[in-house]
Amino acid sequence: MRWRWCGATASRSGRRSTKVEWKRRSGAHFVDATGEVDLGNIDYMKREAEGWELGGDWGDVVIVAQTDPRFLLDDSAQGD
Length: 80
Prior knowledge:
The structure is a single chain. By secondary structure, the chain is an all-beta fold. The chain has strands at about 1-5, 10, 15-25, 30, 35-40, 40-50, 50-55, 60-65, 70-75. The strands form 3 sheets. The protein has a 4-stranded antiparallel β-sheet with strand order 3-8-7-6, with no helix packed on it. A 3-stranded antiparallel β-sheet has the order 1-2-9, with no helix packed on it. A two-stranded antiparallel ribbon has the order 4-5.
């Protein structure tokens, strides 16, 4: 899975999730400057007892994994 943050592309490195629990899902989507579908930002990411909770325009989700997530930003000019 790839994300865009402040125009940079990011990906989550090889950590396997053991459980993904959606608390709320939204069908909203937007179109970014390149014409691609954009589901919105990750507005928050916080550690919870059972895993990591993330939320944004797209919904709220708890991700449980054996290790903490690691996000890698692509520093190329185009984010590809």
